[in-house]
Here is the input.
Amino acid sequence: MTIAVIVGYAFGALAGWSFSRSERVAAVWRVVIRSQIVLVSVVVSLLAAWRLPSVADLLWPIVGGVLGLVLVLGQRGGMTEINDVAALLQFGNQTRAVELPANASTVLAEFDAAGWDALGIDAHVAFATLAVAGREA
Here is the structure.
């Protein structure tokens, strides 16, 4: 079983490295990673099943694996990918137009921690919203 786990991780690392180099795959990257994790967990669970006293004990690992796979593959549009666009940022009492360049981490706003502490962190929350083309992202 140890060899199967090592092979699974090696395959995952190789697949992740090769997928990260392809722009076509970048759009489905989250689904690929989640599917890989579910597949490895199912395979490891089934390899470990030889120690179970009866075939009926395989039911829950199989149901869990199938359910996880359905959830991973069935998720569509849950997250918005924001890349290389102009957006409108609202934070606190301020609104600001921002540019989000492709493949970059961009600081859009900063909050003064001293002011937040003075208001009391138990009663106040820092927030920001981002809108792209008039729609909250």
Remarks:
- The CA atoms of residues 9 and 68 lie 19 Å apart.
- Residues 29-48 form the longest helix (20 residues).
- The mean pLDDT is 77.
- The chain is about 50% helix and 15% strand.
